[in-house]
Design brief:
The structure is a single chain. The chain is an all-alpha fold. The protein has a domain of 58 residues. The chain has three helices and no strands. α2 packs antiparallel against α3. The longest helix is centred in the C-terminal third of the chain and has 31 residues. The protein is elongated, with a radius of gyration of 22 Å.
Length: 94
C-alpha cells in the first residue's frame, strides 16, 4: 500500500538529485536576464529622479550584464576545476 496521493508518482532520490542539479545549472540564464533588467530599472528610476537622459539605464544594464557574465565565467571555471580534480583519471594516493 502506497502512502502517496492518487496520480502522484514516486521520484527516486537519484532522480531528485539530478533534477536539483539541472535546476542549479539553469540559474545562469536567469542571472543573464534579471541582472541587467533590475539594474536598468534602478537606473530608470535614478534618471527620472535626477532629470537626466537615460544614461544610467544604459550604464546599469551594461554593468549588470557584464557582471553576470563574469560571475558565470568564474563559476564555470571553478566547477570544471572541481570535476578535473575529482575525475577518474586522477591518481589517488593511499
Amino acid at each position: 500500500m502506497s502512502s502517496q496521493a492518487p496520480g502522484q508518482e514516486f521520484v527516486e532520490p537519484s532522480q531528485r538529485r539530478e533534477i536539483t542539479q539541472s535546476m542549479h545549472r539553469s540559474t545562469g540564464s536567469y542571472e543573464l536576464v534579471l541582472s541587467p533588467v533590475l539594474l536598468a530599472l534602478v537606473g530608470l528610476w535614478l534618471d527620472h529622479v535626477l532629470g537626466w537622459t537615460p544614461i544610467l539605464v544604459i550604464t546599469f544594464a551594461v554593468v549588470g550584464f557584464f557582471g553576470a557574465v563574469i560571475k558565470l565565467y568564474y563559476q564555470y571555471n571553478a566547477e570544471m576545476a572541481e570535476h578535473e580534480a575529482n575525475g577518474p583519471w586522477v591518481a589517488r594516493r593511499g
